[in-house]
Amino acid sequence: MRLYDSTIPSGNAYKVSLLLSHLGLECEVVELDILASPSQTREASYLAKNPNGRIPALELDDGRVLAESNAILCYLADGTEYLPADRWDRAQVLQWLFFEQYSHEPYVAVLKFFTYWGGLENLSDERRAMVQQRGQQALDVMERALAQRPFLAGDRYTVADIALFAYTQSASAVGYAVGPATGDWLSRVRQQPGYVAIKPNTVGVSHAET
C-alpha cells in the first residue's frame, strides 16, 4: 500500500497513519508539497489517481486508489475492532464520521491551517468569528457526549475517535476551548496500543502537536 500524505502535518492524512499503526500495517508514504504553487496535488500524475486533488489517498497493492480520509478509515477498519459489526453500533460510528467532516473539520482544521501556514490575516472579522463559533459548537457537542461515555461511539475506541482526535488535539492551540471530558478523552486516545503522534511541524510557527 502507498499513502499520499503532505509535507506539512495533515490531520486528515494522520488519521490514516494512526489507524495503520494501530493495525500494525506497513505502508509506503509519499509526501506531497501542498504549499507549493501550484500544489503537487494538482499535478497531472496525482490527479490521475485522485481527481479531487487532495490528500490523503491510499493506493492499494492492486493499483486501486481510495480517497477521502474517513472512507479510507472505514476500508482499513472493516472486520477489525475499530469498526463495529453490529448495525446500530456501526451507524453510531458513521454518525460521528459525518459530523467530523461537516461540523468539525471545516472549522477547527481550517483555523489551524490559517494559523500555522498563512491566511489568517486575510479572514474578515465576520468570517473568523463564524469559524470560531461553529468550531466551538462542534467541540461542545463532543464535550457533552464524552461526559457520558469514554469514547465517542460508546465504550470502545473506534475510527470515530481516530477521526475526531486528529484535529481536536490542536484545537486549544488555535483558540478553541476544550472541555475537561474532551481533555480526558484526548489522553485516553494517546494511551491506545499502537498510538503514534502526528509528525512535528517544521514549517511556519513551531508547535509540538499541530
Structure description:
- The protein has 210 residues and is α+β, with helices and mostly antiparallel strands.
- It has two domains: 76 residues, Glutaredoxin; 104 residues, Glutathione S-transferase Yfyf (Class Pi), Chain A, domain 2, CATH 1.20.1050.10.
- Helix content is 48%, strand content 8%.
- The protein has a four-stranded mixed beta sheet with strand order 2-1-3-4, covered by helices on one side.
- The two termini are 26 Å apart.
- The C terminus is likely disordered.
CATH topology of the largest domain: Glutathione S-transferase Yfyf (Class Pi), Chain A, domain 2
Helix content: 40-55%
Instruction: Report the sheet with the most strands, covering strand number, pairing sense and barrel closure.
Output: 4 strands, mixed
The CATH C-level name of the largest domain is Mainly Alpha
What is the mean predicted local confidence, pLDDT?
Answer: 93
Strand order of the largest sheet: 2-1-3-4
Helices and strands in order:
Layout: E1 2-6, H1 11-23, E2 28-32, H2 44-47, E3 57-59, E4 65-67, H3 69-77, H4 87-117, H5 125-146, H6 159-168, H7 180-190
Parallel strand pairs: 1-2
Antiparallel strand pairs: 1-3, 3-4
Helix pairs in contact: 1-3, 1-6, 4-5, 4-6, 5-7
